[in-house]
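stuck on this fold:
=====
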Amino acid sequence: MTLWHNLSQIRSAPSLLRIDNLIHRYITYQLFAPTRIGLAVRLLGTVLIGLVIGVGVTVAGDMSSKNRMMVLLLMLLPFAMMLVNNLRLVMLAIIPFETAIPVDTYLNYRHDMAVYSAISGFNISISAIILVGLYFFWITQLLSQRGELAHLFPRVSLPHLGYFLATLLSMRVATDPSMTLNEVIIIFYALLLLTYIISTFSRQEELQFMMIVACAVLVLQGLLMIAVFVLRNDIRVGPLFVRFDSHTGRVGGTLGSPNGAASYLLLMLPITVVGMAMFQQLRLKQLSAAAFVLGVIGLFLTQSRGGLIGFTISMVILSLMAAARGWMKLKWPLMIAYVGMIPLVMLAPILFARFMRDDGGSAESRGPLAEIAMRMIADHWVFGVGANNFAIVKDYYITPEFANAWLSTVHNHFLRVWAEMGIIGLAAYLVMIISTLCIGLRCWEMHGIDPLMGMLAIALSAGILGLQFQLAFELFNARTQVHTLWFTSALVIASYTIARRERRALRAAQLSLSLAPRAAEQRR
């Protein structure tokens, strides 16, 4: 048996979805079904919604004019959704834009921890407010049993829920639980987004819409990154901040860190390849092509070695997998390679210096951090020291040989998770990633479905796999990075769910056609 055959037979991830289906059938459906329990839940939910609106109106009176307007708009949002059919999609489109161009704030911000690359405050963002509105609208339709979402009950991805719970439970061993709470909040937002997408996306058109939005975001991000590189200076316009590091010549775009920008582009660029290959309309193909070209240029401008290698890995995997199913002709890999050569040639001197010459100790500085992480793991290998607590606990492990070392949170995501959340957290993270990849693989091998869903699932899976290489050299705790990973994972699971539903409908139609002649003979 070949390794590939063994991988193709993995069914653990889809089996987790089947467990979720049982939970959905016997718990969530029963809570909202027209039974006594369901009616009681609806009545209780209606009362709670009324209380929230009443409290919101009362509290808003004591707020500043800006905060008061935000609260009142949030309370009016579900009712506006009932009047405008497409407002839900508009709100969904805002989330990828705001994730790439953050409009957020951190409460209880700690500058002493920010210096060490820790999550230094309680995050509140426009995306979080939008998610509250989407869930409010969804629950309202479930309670009223009216609207397009009235019969779409909550579904949860057990591996992703497991990782969230592992992060939450690490508060028990944390030196500073408030720092752990900062990371819990970010992952909780990501879990809400993932749950909403896999629960409410029921049509292929919704996936296509999110692909179009992703391409538009990449076009904007790429243009902004090129602009600051040409200007050789930052751009600041209101909440918009596009970063250019004048010391290294690296571009971080609206995402701040060049390595963080590379992680984001690495995850999102595979969507553009799917759009170029699968979109039918010429305008959408052109949008996808523009997003791919500008995104690749932006990726090269970050000068992230791990990001560029991870992107190459993901594109090779995507090309081979798509070609194996006949979804991608030979011209597509050649075109991808050609587009990649353009910024490579244009930026050759800069990239050569970055890859081949002295990088100012950037790579060397990671060694001491990894050694400190290994010492933490040796002492706390089961439960860790608490999520987002590396920056605090590191002081106990600094010995004289680290006197001149650059100190920060370890720039290796796997070591960081193991040190902060123990082997339990690391196992939960690996299960989450592997289950997502297996679901993408299962969707890719399905026959009798629209190839867009199969190619989208395998493309995003390739991006997620390529990202894991970069994470061996990257911190990966920023909100944009985490939410983009969970967003792409949600699209993989949604693609598989929709494809499975489509295949079942096709089989039912084929069965009815095969039984039709027999039924006609019996009537005679």
The CA atoms of residues 13 and 258 lie 33 Å apart. The radius of gyration is 24 Å. The chain has 20 helices and five strands.
